[in-house]
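hey can u check if this looks right to u? its 455 residues, i copy pasted from the old doc so theres a chance i mangled smth
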Amino acid sequence: MKPKFTNAVLLVFAIAIFVGCKADSQDSNKNITLNEDFKSEISAAADQHFKTWFPKIIDTINCGYYTNFEYDWKMSDQQEKMLVTQARALWAAAIASQYYPHDSTFKIAADHGFEFLTTQMWDDVNGGFYLNYPNTNSGEISYKLLYGNAFALYALAEYAKINDSKKVIKWIEKTFQWMDFKARRPGESGYYNIITDTLQDKNSAAYQKFAGSIGWGNPDWKDQNTSIHLLEAFTNAYVVWPDERLRLRLEEMLLIVRDKMVNEKNGLNLYFDKDFKPITFEDDSRETILKNIHLDHISFGHNIETSFLMIDAARILYDTIDTLTMKVATALLDHTIDHGFGPNYTGIYDKAYQFKGSDTLEIVANQKTWWAQAEALHTLVLFSSLIPERKTEFMNIAIKLWDYMKQNIIDSEHGGWYGNGLDNNPESKTERKAHQWKGPYHDGRALLFCKMYLQ
């Protein structure tokens, strides 16, 4: 089998070239030494992370991966299977197989997840992957979620790096073509998240009820969260399947995210109309804004994650990091550094809003979610290599964040990460370590990529 480098490996090469071009003008940085304790702790944490999750989550009885585990990693009684969880676990198994090839556990887990995803979760009639298994989407209006299908594509692409058979590549092609055909509308750029299996009368009472209860925003809106994960999926897919239409869509998504979704305040809006005009409640009352805060807020975790995703996409597209993408990605990171962290960089908060008449952002949700800390750590370490003149600054913040995480996010007794930082959410200590929105993806990627950057 022809070996394939992961995106992370290629990114390390790109960083080396990017930094090397500036080396002569950065003499002041030559004496900077990396905190060796931080480096060794990250390496050990990355190794331990995948051992914590695998083979524990492999469901050898009902196929796929187990979803729910209690705070002490005892298996929960309830074990639903959701597309996003299954795809993220497949991705984690596939990337772990590349970095720990001596341990067959991960290849076995990846093969297992691929088989389940492609034989049990694909809709042979309407196309696309079901959101849940068994399929519970049997109401009056059945639909697919592009967000979940984006993670399926992302996982399939990672799996193709350890199994580049024609069968796997065909699944990548099949998934992309379904997405491109079903989730786009003529004359528009970008994609919609909610895809009904059959054509609907949007004025009907049934559709209006459906649209108001789906829980992912208005079906006629385009959203940031789906878009950044399409960018992520297209980037990974293009590495293993360099199709020309996929390249065009990848570039389109980079430009949409960078030029339309990042606003003039260097944050990301959440929802948009068909022409990417932001959906905002900024001129409404405080009460109305807070009532609709799930539709309009600053998500520091998504902002800082998008910094990395844009850098990765640009590198794959152009074999370099173009100036504008670098500028916008850095601005997103700086916005989080300036506004999103607790005192002395003790974790980043979940949500903020700038109310009318105020010059500052107000934290409206102060939990410090595990995944946002992971993305912040990852992006800070990455940018410490991308911008040599700010290496010390970014690494110092990363080390402070890591110290916070060791005390408030990482469970040193039972293993794994708490869902939220214990400083603001002490109840997280006895909450589930794994559930349908918490798998081995965010923290696994952050730790593994940081380990690589720090080598």
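The two ends are 27 Å apart (CA to CA).
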